[in-house]
Structures are given as structure tokens and as C-alpha cells.
UniProtKB/TrEMBL annotation:
<dbReference type="InterPro" id="IPR006237">
    <property type="entry name" value="L-Met_gamma_lys"/>
</dbReference>
<dbReference type="GO" id="GO:0018826">
    <property type="term" value="F:methionine gamma-lyase activity"/>
</dbReference>
<dbReference type="InterPro" id="IPR015421">
    <property type="entry name" value="PyrdxlP-dep_Trfase_major"/>
</dbReference>
<dbReference type="InterPro" id="IPR054542">
    <property type="entry name" value="Cys_met_metab_PP"/>
</dbReference>
<dbReference type="Pfam" id="PF01053">
    <property type="entry name" value="Cys_Met_Meta_PP"/>
</dbReference>
<protein>
    <recommendedName>
        <fullName>L-methionine gamma-lyase</fullName>
        <ecNumber>4.4.1.11</ecNumber>
    </recommendedName>
</protein>
<dbReference type="InterPro" id="IPR000277">
    <property type="entry name" value="Cys/Met-Metab_PyrdxlP-dep_enz"/>
</dbReference>
<dbReference type="InterPro" id="IPR015422">
    <property type="entry name" value="PyrdxlP-dep_Trfase_small"/>
</dbReference>
<dbReference type="InterPro" id="IPR015424">
    <property type="entry name" value="PyrdxlP-dep_Trfase"/>
</dbReference>
<comment type="similarity">
    <text>Belongs to the trans-sulfuration enzymes family. L-methionine gamma-lyase subfamily.</text>
</comment>
<keyword id="KW-0456">Lyase</keyword>
<keyword id="KW-0663">Pyridoxal phosphate</keyword>
Amino acid sequence: MAREFEFEGFETKSIHAADPRSEAFGSLTVPLYMTSTYVFPDAETGGARFAGEEQGMIYSRIANPTVDVLEKAMAQLEGAEAGLAFGSGMGAISAVLIAMVKSGDHILCSDGLYGCTYGLLTMLKEKFGVEFDLVDMSDMERVRAMMRPQTKVVYVETPINPTLKVVDLQAVSEIAHAGGAQLVVDNTFMTPYLQQPLKHGADVVVHSATKYLGGHGDLIAGVAVGSKAFLDELRFSTLKDIGAVMAPMEAWLILRGLKTLSLRMERHCENAHKVYTYLANHPKVSKVYFPGAPDHPQQELIARQMRGSSGMIAFEVQTLEAGRTLMNSVRLAQLAVSLGEATTLIQHPASMTHAVVPADVRRDEMGIADGLVRLSVGLEHPDDIIADLEQALAKIPVQQPESAKVDTDPHTAA
């Protein structure tokens, strides 16, 4: 049955974007197509599909009906022309960047990146001669000065992992486009419910769907959204030939996760605000980084660009050893990398997710202190999350008396 009108509410779209009712048997949920290949009705049809003259399934490394529904749903939620699914978030990031650059090109990046993204950029530089730089994107003159004639991509995380600095996408997009570059934004921390970068000038948006989109810690997947022309090119080049393909089961699980995305993100945000208030007043916590802080210096930008804070908090304790004591003492929170699932997760970026980044770059350019702890606030009762942190922080030995300093300015991270 065809839709007679378009829905406006995100909550409605997240449930009905993946509408399978045109499929056989009238299944309420999207059918799971567990097949590697597809039978052509005749040789002429097969040839026409391979030549791009006729639409239709060919092989599941290129397209699959269940995955196709997810791609369309993500495009609708992000306000994009098209979507493309991958076997992991890094599969999506790698495919997009490889498609956009060649030897001798330059990528300008926000001064904080997921550790594996930094590792990919380092590999592209060392093996293929693609240069990259990190720049503080709170300083637009500095961003403009760092652009080169060879800059083909400006790559941004916002909020940045793990320091949670917020980048003005509209301002950066104007600089990128004026220099002939495309803006790619990792929207994993926000999801399309809380932020839609294409509306602020981004050309391509990438997600680790492993995180909030799936929401339950039971899959690995990635998604890119953008123009149909670019993603069609991507489908028949870096996706097909490198092969970071999403399995149909993962697509099916993400489609299920999307139905509760808005509800989950609201609860993640509510819980994170309460946990932030607790941490901001704890004497053993020296700094807290959280976009939802009521006195955050970028409030105007956050209100304009974001619908909420997400569930991510970063905070500093005095030493690396204090951080280890904290993480070894939690009982409810789980000591694990990743984020965005129902369970509260805690981890140490300097020795875990960002260990691949050289120590001087990590500290001086990215602002990741050795005592920084990243917390993915889950869906448990907030009082229980706070009680767990309370008993864990109590295990940290008392340092020399020092006035507690709560720093909500992400640009002053040591």
C-alpha cells in the first residue's frame, strides 16, 4: 500500500520509514532476506542490471532487500537523498574517504578524532601520500588558514570523541566549500534525532550504527548518507570492491532499534544531565565535559545545531592511577569500549580507544589528558548510575587539598 502523504515527526518517521507493506504476504516487520545472490528471469535482464540499465538485485555485496530498507530509512531520518550501509562504522568512514581522495590530496580534520579514524588517516598518509592535519575548529580563521589547494575533504566529529567539543558546522561548511572541499561529519554521538548535519552544510554524514542506532550492543555496522550520485558511485566502487558489506541480520536489528531511537535518546539525555550535575560537584573530579552543561560557553551554537546533549560525558580525575581505580571499582557500569547502548559503559581513552594516537598528539592537539574518563550514560535509573560512581570514586585516595575546578569549556582541556 503506497503512502498518500509524508510524515513530519521524527518519532513517526523512525517507525514508519521502513514500511514493508508492499512486500509479499503483508508482513508488518521488514522481511529478513538471507541470500547471497539473486536469480535473473533471463540473460537479458542479468546483462541489463550489470550494465546499470535496469534496477534490480544482483548480489548481496552490492545490495540486499533488507539492507535497502535500512538505507532508505536512514536517508529519510537524516534528510538525505540516499543512504549506504556498511559492515562497520570504520567501513563507512574508510569507503567515504578513499572515494574522495587520491595521492597528494589533503584532509583537514577537527582536533579530536576517534582513534581508529586517526589510524586510518595515518595509514593513508604513510602508504598512499594523502596528507592530513588536525585543527581547532573553534577558530574559523585558523581553519581558513589551514586549508590548502589540495584540501579535498574537511572531516569533523561534533561533539568530538572523547572531549565533546562542539564544532559550528555551518561556519566550517562555508570555509570547506569556498576552498573546493567537501564536508564529512561523523554524527555517531548525536544520531539524526539530535543533530542533522546535512541541514548545516555537510555533504556526507557517517555513523557507527553499532552505537545508538542499534542501541543494544549486539551488532557491528556503519551507515553513510548524502547525495544519490555520490553514494551510487560509492556502492559500485569502494563498497563493492573493498567489501565492507553489512549483513542483512544487522540491517534488520538496526531497523528494530530505530523504532525506539527517539525514546532511548531522550532517556540517555535525561540521565546524562543528572549524572553531569553529580560529577560537576564531586571534589575528586577536576573537569567535566558535557554539551548539556547549563553554563556551557557554546550554548547558542548548541541550541541552534543540536536538539539535545546525547548521553556522553567525559571527566578528569587527578591521575591515570586514579582513573584506573575508578574503572576497576564500578559495579553497575561496565568497563568496555563502545557506547550508546542500554548499559552504562566506562572506559579510558588514553589507553584504550585512542591508544593508537601518539601521546604528544593525544595530549597537546586532541586535549585528551591521561586522567580523562569517558562515560556512556545508559538507560538504568539515574540514581543507580550515580550511586555506582559514588562508591567507585570513594575508592580513589584523597589527594593534597585543592580547590575543585569544574571546566565546561571544551577548549581548555589540558
